[in-house]
Write a sequence for this structure.
């Protein structure tokens, strides 16, 4: 049985609309539907990894790629500082089980 697609995979595959801020071959960046700050972006890998617990050694480049994108995205949004969050597991407050980095700034 194929595992159910996450809401973020559906956004990546354009099955669900979203405000796309940036996209490349490895990831997509969207505006959070329920922003907790003036700027609230979600940096999402196209590879559907459920949580940080599920990362494999081969994901090192992908995660580094997303980390390097954060300051670029912040600057493109006019931010000179920002917060990042990664929620992991239900007890870590994670709601969507497809890794994503929150970028928040005011
Ligand atoms: P987390 O899993 O990190 O706790 O939170 C998931 C985040 O995804 C939340 O901030 C929520 O507002 C956002 N989110 C959930 N569903 C959608 C959606 O369909 N579109 C967008 N743009 N954001 C979503």
């Amino acid at each position: 049985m194929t595992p159910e697609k996450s809401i973020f995979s559906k956004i990546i595959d354009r099955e669900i609309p979203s405000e796309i801020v940036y996209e490349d071959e490895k990831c997509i960046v969207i505006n959070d539907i329920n922003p907790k700050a003036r700027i609230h972006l979600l940096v999402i890998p196209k590879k559907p990894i459920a949580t940080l617990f599920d990362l494999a050694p081969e994901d090192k480049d992908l995660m580094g790629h997303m980390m390097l994108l954060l300051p670029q995205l912040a600057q493109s949004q006019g931010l000179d500082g920002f917060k990042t969050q990664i929620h992991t597991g239900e007890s870590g407050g994670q709601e969507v089980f497809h890794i994503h980095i929150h970028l928040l700034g005011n």
